[in-house]
Design a protein that fits this description.
11 strands, mainly beta, 118 residues
């Protein structure tokens, strides 16, 4: 059974940083892409960034380029999201997801709350 467990969320002041972790288990993730999404109150869940588990290649949306960095530790089966220069608009529940390359994200974590105060 595949499990994705996020951690590292919390309350931070504007301009601060947080690092989220996503511990993945239950299968090997070769040929998979792992991504981070977020859902702000009253809004739809949106894609932020992804990483190819095999190659390490990444893709970012423009709104987080230069502020957020995704990385992975294959030995620990963990993906990280380093978030810097946070602002109140970054307040959301952050989700980790996994899916086959070229496919849909089929596995999701339970989410971790990030709150940025002004």
């Amino acid at each position: 059974q595949v499990q994705l467990v996020e951690s590292g969320g919390g309350l931070v002041q504007a301009g601060g940083s947080l690092r989220l972790s996503c511990a993945a288990s239950g299968r090997t993730f070769s040929n998979y892409v792992l991504g981070w999404f977020r859902q702000a109150p009253g809004k739809e869940r949106v894609f932020l960034v992804s990483i190819n588990w095999d190659s390490g290649s990444t893709r970012y949306v423009d709104s987080v380029k230069g502020r957020f960095t995704i990385s992975r530790d294959n030995a620990k089966n963990t993906v990280y999201l380093q978030m810097n220069s946070l602002n109140p608009e970054d307040t959301a529940v952050y989700y980790c997801a996994a899916g086959l390359k070229g496919g849909v994200y089929e596995y999701w974590g339970q989410g971790t709350q990030v709150t940025v105060s002004s």
